Amino acid sequence: MSRKKLLFVHHISAKAKFVTNDIEILRKKFEVDVLQSNLSNNLSFIFSFVFQFFRFLFSLKNYDAVYIWFADYHSFLPIFFSKLFGKKSYIAVGGYDATYIPEINMGLFTKSGIKKRFRCFCATYSLKNCSVIFPVDKSLIENENRYIYSDLPGKPVLKDGIKNFIKDIQTPFKTIRLGYDAKIFKSGNTVKERAVVSAGLIENDNEYRRKGFDLLIEAAKKMPDVKFILIGLNEYYLGYIKNLELKNTELYGKVSYDELIKLYGRAKVYSQLSMFEGMPSAVCEAMLCGCIPVGSEVNGIPDIIGDCGIIVKERNGDKAAEAIRAALEFDETASINSRNRIVEMFPLKKREKELFEITDNEI
Q1: pTM above 0.90, yes or no
Q2: Are residue 111 and residue 153 in the same domain, yes or no?
Q3: What does the angle CA 75 – CA 81 – CA 85 come to, to the nearest 5 degrees?
Q4: Is 185 inside a domain boundary?
Q5: Average pLDDT, the chain
Q6: What stretches of the chain show up as alpha helix (H) in DSSP?
Q7: Is residue 204 part of a domain?
Q8: pLDDT digits (tens, 9 = 90+) for 108-157
Q9: Paired strand residues for 106
């Protein structure tokens, strides 16, 4: 008996491990073709859109289902033709496709300008017309973010999540958490440094603040006896932080996964003081490497950390420094507990099982 065919669609820029993990999982049961879409807000958009229109028109009927990572420009056509040809379609939602935060230009659900309106339309249509939505955290369905404006007295809490932006959505949701391979993420160090590490793709000021790197620099100034290892900085921020002449910072641009694991393995604490996240993989990966987590009270972070670390409830440099210093005083049992929590709660096999529970019954 031949295997059923599945088209896996993601934007060409979405190369994270959790995307490739899903491709590997789905290939265990399906014949999977991968389409890396290049649709984006540039001059080639119309040409690419027309090209993909005809590609889906003639090819999508040959597939049994479509699986898409993130709702965006690239999800519109495969969902449109899935509906036209009566095929099952699934969208995995990771974070930016479930919010809009104007202060840091984060998220899809804005209608300021024609291009942004069209992007919002594409995402909204996709989410309303796919068969099932797979958010990586329940907060991406409906949520109140009390942390993001906690440093702005009088500012109301941020309401986000798909249901806050698409009021009439009827598409079923199935929260499926990301999974991690404990054989890959592990510490090779028996003794941890008195250091805190944090990683993110810091390409502009919005991401610098969203990931909480501004608070980490404030904390570094207050804690000269602690090393701060910051990973993923672009050239501007590598220079900016270097010019602050903080002797306790160790700075990196983009690094390989092997190097990332080594850096996680060195530090006793991992800090994620984000203003918004879905289910941040960096926290889970660092905990697998024995880091004690310090994270903001945002989306999936508290559930990941549980009782293995410290939750920061206010966006404040003093509070961040206080939490990091407290975590540094935990004994080595806390490091073991951090790893065990991720091993037990978020194994890759669990995501595989939950994905197949849906697709096996529907495709």
Answers
A1: yes
A2: yes
A3: 145
A4: no
A5: 94
A6: 17-26, 45-59, 73-85, 114-129, 162-165, 205-210, 213-222, 235-243, 257-266, 281-288, 301-305, 317-328, 332-345, 348-362
A7: yes
A8: 998 788 888 999 999 999 999 999 999 999 999 999 999 999 998 889 99
A9: 101
